[in-house]
Write a structure and sequence with these properties.
This protein folds into two domains: 78 residues, Homeodomain-like (Arc Repressor Mutant, subunit A); 112 residues, Orthogonal Bundle (Tetracycline Repressor, domain 2), CATH 1.10.357. Helix content is 61%, strand content 4%. It contains twelve helices and two strands, in the order E-E-H-H-H-H-H-H-H-H-H-H-H-H. The chain has a two-stranded antiparallel sheet with strand order 1-2. It is flat, with a radius of gyration of 23 Å.
Length: 240
Amino acid sequence: MTSRPAPDQGRPEPGEPRRARRGSRTQAVSVTLDDVADAALRQAGQSGLDAVTIRSVATELGISPMTIYRFVDSKDELIDAMLVLALSRMEVPHSSASDWRQRVIDIMVAWRELLLAHPSVVQMLVNRRVPAHSEGLGRLAEHVLANLEDGGITGEEAARTFWRIFSFTFGHIVFERPRRDIDAEAQAEAGRAMAATARLRGFERVRDLAGELTDIAARGTLESSLKVLLDGVGARPSGT
C-alpha cells in the first residue's frame, strides 16, 4: 500500500511550485490544486467520472501520486475540487428583462444549459452536496438573490426561495438529461406500454391519460414551470 506524506510535511498552499519525479530525473513542476482538478475534469469528460483516479490524474500531469495527496486526501476530496472548479467557470448571464421573475428564469435556464453540456458535473451534483466555499454557487446565489430582492423577497424568505429555485432547476436537469433524444415513436411506444400496464392493474386514470403522461412536451418547459413557482412566491405574503 502506498504511504502518504508524513503529517509534519504539511500541505502546501495551492499555487506553490513543487518538485515531482519523472523517470530517473527530478524536475521542477509547478502544480496547483486547480491544475489537478482541471486534469481530473478532462478525464471525466473523456472517459466518465468512474475512470478518474489519483493515479490517472498524476500520470496525465506527469507527477507522482504523492504530489496529488498534498492537495487532497482521497478521491472524494478530488471530486469536491473538481466540482468547485467546474462551477467557478460557469458565468451567470446578464438578463435585460424588465420583470424580476423573468430575470431569474433567464439565469436558471442559462445555468441549466451550462450543466447539460457537462454530464460529469451533473453526476457529481447528484451524488454530493456543493461545497459551501464554492465561488460558482455563491455567484449564482448572489444574482438570484439580487433579483428576488427586486421583487420584494428578502431575508430568510429569499434564502428559502433560492433553494426552491435551485432544487427545482436541478431536478429538471436530472429528469431531462436522459430524455433529450427520445423521439416521437419511442414516446408513443412508452404510452402503449403504460396503457397496457394500467389496464392490467386497473389504473383507469393512468390508462386514459397514458399518451399524455408519456409525452415529454406535455411535461412543460423549465421556463414555464419556474414561472408558476415564481408567480406563487411573488403573490404570497412574506414569511408564508
